[in-house]
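User: I've been going back and forth on whether these two constructs are worth ordering. Before I decide, could you fold them both?

Assistant: Sure. I'll take them in the order you sent them. The first construct and its structure tokens:
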Amino acid sequence: MSGSGKKIVAVSNRLPITVKRGDSGLEIKSGAGGLVTALAPVLRNRGGTWIGWLGHSGTLEIEGLLEKASIDTGYELYPVWLTEDEVNNYYHGFSNEVLWPLYHDLQTRCRFEPRYWDFYLAVNKKFAAAVETKSTEEDFVWVHDYHLTHLARELKERGVSRKTGFFLHIPFPTLDIFLRLPWRRQILEAMLEYDLVGFQTLRDRRHFVQCVQSLVPGARIRGRGQVLKATYRGRELRIGTFPISIDYRGFATDAASEPVSTTAWYLHEALPERQVILGVDRLDYTKGIPERLWAFETALERYPELKEKVTLVQVVVPSREDVEEYKALKAEIDGLVGKINGRFTSSGWVPIHYLYRSLDRTELLAYYRLAEIALVTPLKDGMNLVCKEYCACNIEGKGVLVLSEFAGAAAQLHRWALMVNPYDVINVSDAIHKAFTMGRKERRSRMSRMRANIRRQDIFWWVNSFLQAAFSSKLDAFPQVIEDYIPDQQKILVRKFHP
């Protein structure tokens, strides 16, 4: 499905699908997460390509499944195959035991194993080879996140000329924390090989600039505003701030649909005469789920009027279940939920409804519609799109957003959300009570302003601002694709490109 003409080639650690062996053989399902939510509407029907790992070691005979999945998604899917050693050392090792905790200010969780670094470089070479195969000099190669900081450097090592951009979806640490990384200078120099380096917030960009100025001799950075200019080793690049967003119109439209409205009504019937507080998180120690549960327990202690009048629906999406640290986190969450429910449950009322599973889109949007209060309280987060999805789906304008100061979204929404320090259980419990007692007029005023902000700076605004900074081009420069099919064969006949 590569088509012709200029296209966006997205490169990330994971493809936006998962492959699992079911009762009837191999099955492909849509992936989850902020990057999939953000990028899928952009690539769809534009002849784009997404390069990534399928999420397991080894290879599978799935060419036919991938072809069908590419048709279904509207863009080509191209897998990079990793061995078990590469998965253990590049993904579980360097990416998730070094960079992930370090970039989230949790350096005590880091394991600086030298072999991790060697595998990290080797896998970045694999991805560079895939980019060389699936792109042309006319394409824009958009690399995503901390797993692939070295891809632009590896392309140049191969003599491959491409326009490249890198976007970091997670926070970038301060200089004093980044200094602990044994490969600190190599990471910075590799990032400076891109034509554009993007961050979620001004804070993250400031931290990166400080690290470059302190650790990379010869690098010069100048300018002000959203995009800075830098020179290094005789070439110029740009460093910008681009807060990622969502397909606002898609979420708002789907939230108003009959299936979502019906599901929300049934959920409401099961939780009558009380305000629903919603938390939706992937299982991860950066999300602050235990701290949130402690804060909710504290709120019930300090404000008895909340009893039987609120219900916390906490959704935890399984993640990295084979990692001991995540097993321990789940056990902690399970224990806290049991303890709080055992302590406060009364006839007809259970304080916490705990769902440890993924929700399909209809059910998720129904919970967004249902909830009067959303608790988005990560200990540290690059952006956090849950809060934006919640606002987009809050079409009645009745919701209150309680938001962590340490989420990237705080830079955009702090004037209208109730801002909290997730480490301060008293502060969060007070915010829960304030949200519970907030009047309809104030709720509508705060929510309407957040929705307007997210609608204005949606996912297409994000892409346009990034492409404009990269090479003075917008999404319109990448042609729309119309596909004609033979219905009985489901094969593409014609791909027509329209500007």
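The second construct, handled the same way:
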Amino acid sequence: MPDERATTKPVSSTDVRQDSVEDEIYARHQKVYPREVHGIFRNLRVLGVVTLLGLFYGVAWLPWDGRQAVLFDLPARKFYVFGLTFWPQDFFFFAWLLVIAALSLFFFTALAGRLWCGYACPQTVWTEAFLWIERKVEGTRNQQMKRDKGPMSASKFRVKAAKHFLWIAFSLFTGFTFVGYFTPIRELAVSAANFSLGPWETFWVFFYGFATYGNAGWMREQVCIYMCPYARFQSAMFDKDTLVIAYDEARGEPRGSRKRGIDYRKAGLGDCIDCTLCVQVCPTGIDIRDGLQYQCIGCAACIDACDDVMEKMDYPKGLIRYTTEHAMAGTRTQVVRPRTIMYIILLTVLSIGLIYAISQRMPLELDILRDRNILFRETAEGMVENVYTLKVINMDEQTRVYRLSVAGLEGLELMMAEQRVEVEPGEVLNLPVSVRVDPVVLERAANEIEFTLSAEDDPGLSRTQTARFLGPVFSR
């Protein structure tokens, strides 16, 4: 028999480290069972969930002047937002709004950390709703863990099936509501009841429902940890005056269990009793006592859990609390600082500018396209003529009659059978026109002229656009 000792390769410390790294990278995901917690921050989180979900599911059903209050009608290229109607030409307003939203996110992050993630992010909101359904069906954290570790049985299958049925029903209703913002939701409901949904409506209801079911039901904290880019670059917006959730290590360490009422200071212990409740309630499964981590979404569940324990132990609350690095180090926190001032100024200017631009926007667009095939032509009467195509867009909700005029050169004539133009709501009218002038008045080869389009019933509704008039130049 060969000597096994001679063929066995010694295991080096490098191999051990490499194996441990591979085990950590490829380790199977362990489900997080967040424990239910009660407290002021939990109440605020529930309030946020109820408010945001209520708005999402409720606003789609609100009527407004005989139509849906918020409706993005893509086939008609109309976007209704309560009393306002936007068109594709108004897309820059949406871009403007996105800039304000991004700066708001940066501002609140610099001020109060991941406030958005913990209370208003759609992933957090829908995950909270799915967790609530799971607890109602499967019970407490310990009951869920015990059931998952046990073998499959009729009781376990019944409970799991009930939970997933409710999850899927809630997800499909979410997808239905989402599509209801693009197709009138009342019409969509009638079609769904009659099983006559169109192919695109059906696809998006199931697609968005599947995304909700997968993200909030199965992936949960993995979306926040691995998929969300915000967790990766948030540290660039943090400074030592940013409000974050932190564990007071100086007060809590050394941690250890003890009985209530004993003099734990004599035993050399800190305030932390090592109950691990702060870990059990965390929706991402981290231990806040290890310091600030990018996986922390700032939900403050650990604060509620720790404060409850501190109250039962008759210790001061705040072992885990909202604080800043400066406050933890005993120095003064500066809420008003150059970064926050800059964000406030930018947000104020952009918000006022957006409101003013929307209030002053004109539901009329006029674009002028010059005929590029011919620079100019001479008529039998010796006049110089240029040809244009005017694109008139009526972004109003009613039919408008406009009058067209042209100016800029002496004796300029607009050659049209009728200078009155009727345009239907939302219509894009291509209007070919020609302009003539006596070449004697031309001082240069390219001359600037102005087309003016004005509504007959509303003189304030008017657009003026410039164009080039080309012609020969006679020496004088």
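Notes on the second construct follow. The chain has two domains: 23-59+113-330, 364-470. DSSP finds 17 helices and 16 strands in the chain.
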